[in-house]
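User: I've been trying to design a sequence by hand for this structure and keep getting stuck. Would you show me what you'd pick, starting by listing the structure so we're on the same page?

Assistant: Good idea, let's start from the same input. This is the structure you sent:
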C-alpha cells in the first residue's frame, strides 16, 4: 500500500516540489527515510528499487481480466507473503521460539525483520540524513511507557533502527531496541505525524501534503470479508481525521489568540499571563492537502499484506495520478489563507464519486 505514497512523491518531485521536511510512520517511515536519505536526483530510483525488491517474491503474473480473478490472485499472493516472507523486508521465524515464553524479543513476532536493516543500509545514506539537508521525523511507540515518540534528525542521530522501530507492527514484526528502550510501530497510536509537525513549527508558513492509505468513505459491506476490510479502513482513517480536525481547531484558536493579543494596551504586555498566552499564540498559515488512496474492488481485509508486483504498480500509478490532480487543482483553485493564520484542509481528492476518474471508483 505504501507504493501509493511513492507515486504521490513522484508527482510532486517531477513538478519541482521537493520537500524540506519528510515525516512518516510505519511504511511511511521507510518511504520517508529513502527520500531524505538520497540526493533529489536519486530519490525516485531508490524508491523504485525498494518497491521492486519487496514485490519480487510472488513469482506469478497477476491476471487482469476481472476483479474476481484479481481478488483470488491477491489472496494467493498474501498467503505466499505470510508463508515465505517478503524479500528485503522480513522472513518467517521457526515455530520453536514462538512456543517458549520468556524467550526474548524473537518470541514476540512471527517474522524476523533483519532483512529490512540490510535493505535500509543499502538504499539510505544515513550520513546525508544526519547532515540535516532534509528534515526527517519518524514516529514509534515506547512499549514500556506506552508513549508516542518521534525520532527526528534535528534532535538526534538517526540510524536504520529508528526506521525499523517505526515500522515494527506487532505481532508480525519484532520490537526494536534503541538506547535500552523497546519500540513498536507508531501506527498503534496514529498513522499521521501532522500533530508533531505543527507542534514543532510555529513560525513558518507551511504547505503539508498528507498522504493517507486508508479511506474513511466506503460502501455498505456485502460479505464478511468486506466487513472486515471496512472496519480496518474506518479504524485507521478515524485516527487521521480526529488528529486533523483537532489540529484545525487548535490552530484557529492560536491564530485568534494572536489577533486578540494585538489589541491589548502596551502596559498589559508585561503581565505573566499575557506573556504565557503569547507563547501559545501563532500567526503562521498552514495548508494541509489531503491525498487518500481509494481501494479497488479486488482488495480485501488483508490488503496491507499484499506484495504482488501488479498491485504495487496499480498503487504507484494511483499515487502519481492523484498527486498530479492535486497539483492541477492547486494551480486552478489556489488556497488563499486568511491573514493572521489559518489551518486549511484542502480536500485534495475528497470529491463525490461522480467526479472521480473511473479508475478510482470503488
Amino acid at each position: 500500500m505504501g507504493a501509493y505514497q511513492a507515486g504521490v512523491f513522484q508527482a510532486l518531485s517531477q513538478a519541482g516540489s521537493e520537500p524540506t521536511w519528510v515525516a512518516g510512520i510505519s511504511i511511511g517511515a521507510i518511504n520517508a527515510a529513502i527520500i531524505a536519505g538520497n540526493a533529489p536526483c536519486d530519490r525516485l530510483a531508490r524508491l523504485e528499487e525498494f518497491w521492486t525488491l519487496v514485490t519480487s517474491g510472488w513469482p506469478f503474473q497477476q491476471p487482469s481480466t476481472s476483479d474476481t480473478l484479481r481478488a483470488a490472485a491477491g489472496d494467493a499472493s498474501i498467503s505466499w507473503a505470510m508463508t515465505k516472507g517478503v524479500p528485503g523486508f522480513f522472513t518467517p521465524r521457526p515455530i520453536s521460539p514462538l512456543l517458549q515464553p520468556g524467550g526474548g524479543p524473537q518470541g514476540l513476532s512471527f517474522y524476523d525483520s533483519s532483512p529490512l536493516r540490510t535493505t535500509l543500509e543499502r538504499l539510505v545514506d544515513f550520513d546525508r540524513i544526519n547532515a540535516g539537508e532534509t528534515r526527517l521525523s519518524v514516529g514509534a511507540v515506547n512499549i514500556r511507557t506506552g508513549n508516542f515518540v518521534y525520532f527526528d534528525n534535528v534532535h538526534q542521530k538517526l540510524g536504520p533502527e529508528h526506521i525499523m522501530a517505526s515500522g515494527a507492527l506487532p505481532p508480525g514484526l519484532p520490537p526494536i531496541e534503541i538506547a535500552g528502550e523497546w519500540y513498536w510501530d507508531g501506527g498503534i497510536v496514529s498513522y499521521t505525524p501532522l500533530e508533531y509537525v505543527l507542534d514543532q513549527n510555529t513560525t513558518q508558513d507551511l504547505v503539508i501534503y498528507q498522504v493517507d492509505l486508508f479511506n474513511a468513505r466506503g460502501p455498505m459491506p456485502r460479505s464478511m470479508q468486506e466487513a472486515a476490510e471496512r472496519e480496518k479502513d474506518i479504524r485507521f482513517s478515524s485516527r487521521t481525521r480526529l488528529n486533523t480536525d483537532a489540529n484545525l481547531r487548535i490552530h484557529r484558536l492560536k491564530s485568534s489568540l494572536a489577533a486578540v493579543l494585538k489589541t491589548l494596551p502596551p502596559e498589559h504586555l508585561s503581565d505573566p499571563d499575557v506573556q504565557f498566552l503569547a507563547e501559545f499564540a501563532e500567526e503562521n498559515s498552514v495548508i494541509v492537502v489531503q491525498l487518500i488512496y481509494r481501494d479497488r474492488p479486488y482488495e480485501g481485509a488483508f490488503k496491507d499484506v499484499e506484495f504482488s508486483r501488479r498491485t504495487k504498480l496499480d498503487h504507484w500509478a494511483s499515487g502519481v495520478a492523484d498527486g498530479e490532480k492535486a497539483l492541477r487543482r492547486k494551480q486552478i483553485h489556489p488556497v488563499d489563507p486568511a491573514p493572521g493564520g489559518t489551518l486549511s484542509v484542502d480536500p485534495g481528492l475528497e470529491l463525490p464519486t461522480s467526479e472521480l476518474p473511473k479508475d478510482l471508483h470503488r
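That's my pick for every position. To get oriented when you compare it with your attempt: The first strand starts at residue 21 and ends at 25. Strands lie at 21-25, 91-92, 111-112, 135-142, 148-152, 176-178, 181-185, 206-212, 286-292, 343-346.
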